[in-house]
Amino acid sequence: MGLSITELASHVAALPPDIRQVSDRIFSVDEANGDLKLPESMLPWVERQFGSVDNIVRQRIVKVTNRITFESSIFNPLRALRPHRFLHKGQARPGSLSENNNGDFTDPLHNTPEDLFGRVKGKYCITAGNVAKYEGLHGVIVFDDPDPLKYGCSQVADYLETGWRWAQQAHAYDPAALYFLFLWNCNFRAGASIPHGHAQVVLGRHAHYGKVEQLRLAASAYRDQYKSDYFDDLFRVHEALGLGLQRGEARILAYLAAIKLNEVMLMTPALTDSLKENAYHVLACFRDRLNVTAFNAGIVFPPLDELTGWEGFPVIARMVDRGDINDMSSDIAAMEFYGANVVSSDPFQTAEALFQHIKSDKKHEKSS
Hints:
Low-confidence stretches: 364-368
Number of strands: 13
CATH superfamily of the largest domain: HIT-like
Strand content: 15-25%
Number of domains: 2
Shape: globular
Number of helices: 11
Radius of gyration: 22 Å
Distance between the termini: 32 Å
Strand order of the largest sheet: 4-5-7-6-11-12-10-9-8
């Protein structure tokens, strides 16, 4: 059996002293046992639902807090076995592709609005203006293929390149708009209101979005205090624990302070081919190895013009599993809004699946 998040404290304790020091200044790890006394009447149900009464009466809970960014995640993989309500087999979720309800994206040239600076056409997609904006410059990248889970490396690269070209065109239209995000909500469970495959792009003015600014300030304070680069150290800790992998220019890590299931972070110096390729590998692993049918992906870019205070800030892509599209239970509740993220996946298992996928794909590339 491989490493487990439930033994994270001992994994950190076993690190070489220099990297353990870095780990301890970035992350705090707290462990607790959740103990229960079950009535006899519950035992048959617990056995059926969770596989073992022993797993329930004493549960190992691990809380990881990023001391620099104050992101906090509580891990208990047992929560993945909680009761869920699923749609009946063959029952279509309202608004799903199976209902042939793709909205207006099947004919975007005639049925979607256009940004005032025009459309950007990619090999496998085209942009449109967002009909219900949350930013002055807010576009949609409409995929040619309506199936949001049907993508290859060429498609993912094209979506990202098209988004970048949209940002350049939007910036030329409004030179004060500098702050770019690429966002992909795959399927309704991840926030998509239209099932047809699409991504979103926004370009803000005055300052970056709040969470990005918070990260920049935290990284700057870290550099001032420790005379070291936060993003370099973040990767070093994950790599030492077996949660990080360098592939080309991309640093890939199964993030310890995950937002939700199976979160993976990529960091590159710019929108490089390495970022495009490895973003695809993460999403392909989600789909093909982890059976993910809904995900969120967000890519944060430093300002389009060079600004003081942003030196060394990388392009950061984060991708997270949002669960089964047929699951009628919500994966976000009050604890996520007002306390900390509650995560039922294990980053060590996420890393194992992803790195095996990447290695097997490299073997396939050599043999083909």
